[in-house]
Amino acid sequence: MASKFTSSRNSVKIAFTLLSALTGGALFMLLHLPIPWLLGPMIATLIGSNIAKKYYVWPGPIRNTGMIIVGYTIGLSLTASALREMARQLPSMLLMTVLLLLFCAGIALVVSKISGINYKTILLGSIPGGLTQMLVLAEETEDINLTVVTVIQVVRLMMIIVCVPLLIFSPLFGNSSGATDVTPLLSATSAIWSDLFPNMILFAIACTLCGILGQKIKFPTAYLLGPAIITAVIQISGVHGPALPFSMINAAQLMIGVFVGLLLDPRKLPNKLQTISLAIGSGILLIAGSYGLSLLFSYVVAVSGSTALLSLAPGGMDQMSLIAHEVNADLSTVAGYQLFRTFFIFFAVPPLFKLIFGIKKKQTSTIS
């Protein structure tokens, strides 16, 4: 009887949490803020749970479902044509990506010294990967202040979304700043529910099994990368992966956003004003560094300045590709470089991160 009562209470709490999340997402939509169904629920549940924590519950399996959906959409991006473009420009893609990540690591070192926050936390906040993936990696890593990582990542994302279009459409690049809507697009193409079947059944089973298997073998961000890998493999083998409806993408972002929002605690944000100021400063440095690398890129590869900056800007592939279309930049180059950096960060950074800091931890324990 007690278990039924507890289950009933949890159901009410989950419903209350969902209502808060939907309210936050709808508000962000009305205000035309970026990625509203991730940030809106995150902020709404963050505020609500810090006011009345006992009313908020969000089970881990719901978050994992959202991760599987996002992983599937990532895998859809890895098409045969995208792979061919990556292979053709692989050396320069790798060079530019590594230089950008080294620049981010340098910024993180400076910010860590100034703020006194541990380097791992600042580094995860500074890496220009997907917001979701970086937050999940932060959650899985020891000695990380998730609140700080989120603040730095969100500030960077918003600065990129605002500043890069202004820079691209400025006289500096010779592009008209005439009326063009650079509102970010969702990464998935719109689809209707009837288009999902029957192929979606295969992908759903494969993605779920790979997520569970990846978790069991302790694969980094398993519920994201497992589905991404198997989706790409199945697609390349010849089975069409249907695009997801916008409503499903939004639902997945909400599932993840609520979970992260409940993990955050503003009281764990050290020196709030200083941390936010440093996040803004590191965002400005990252944009400046991307611009500097774009000058080198345009010289070495002989592409336009707009193409170079949009290829290296640490924003989302969807936003950068949209702007590239508006200014007649080389869309295939922009999409190829953005996609390569995204997958490089998804697949290479988590194991490298854990390996490097795992070795350091062993060395520290040996010395002590």
Brief account:
With 368 residues, the protein is mainly α. It has 15 helices and no strands.
The count of strands amounts to 0
Query: Unreliable runs, pLDDT <50, ≥5 residues?
Result: 177-190
Q: What is the beta-strand fraction? A: under 5%
Distance from first to last alpha carbon: 52 Å
Rg result: 21 Å
- State the secondary-structure class: mainly alpha
User: What's the number of helices?
Assistant: 15
| Biggest sheet details | none
Helix content: over 70%
Q: What number of domains? A: 1
Characterize the overall form. Answer: globular
What are the SSEs and their pairings?
Blueprint: H1 2-30, H2 36-51, H3 60-77, H4 80-88, H5 90-115, H6 119-126, H7 131-140, H8 146-168, H9 199-216, H10 222-236, H11 246-263, H12 272-301, H13 305-312, H14 317-326, H15 331-367
Helix pairs in contact: 1-2, 2-11, 3-9, 3-10, 3-11, 4-15, 5-6, 5-12, 6-8, 7-8, 8-12, 9-10, 12-13, 13-14, 13-15, 14-15
InterPro entries: AbrB_dup (IPR017516), AbrB_fam (IPR007820)
Keywords: Membrane, Transmembrane, Transmembrane helix
Protein name: AbrB family transcriptional regulator
Looking at this protein, list some descriptive labels.
368 residues, mainly alpha, globular, AbrB_dup, transmembrane helix, membrane, AbrB family transcriptional regulator
What would you say this structure looks like, in words?
The chain has 368 residues and is an all-alpha fold. It has one domain (59-363). Helices cover 75% and strands 0% of the residues. The protein has helices at 2-30, 36-51, 60-77, 80-88, 90-115, 119-126, 131-140, 146-168, 199-216, 222-236, 246-263, 272-301, 305-312, 317-326, 331-367. Helix 4 (80-88) crosses helix 15, helix 7 runs antiparallel to helix 8 and helix 9 (199-216) packs across helix 10. It is globular. 45% of the residues are buried.
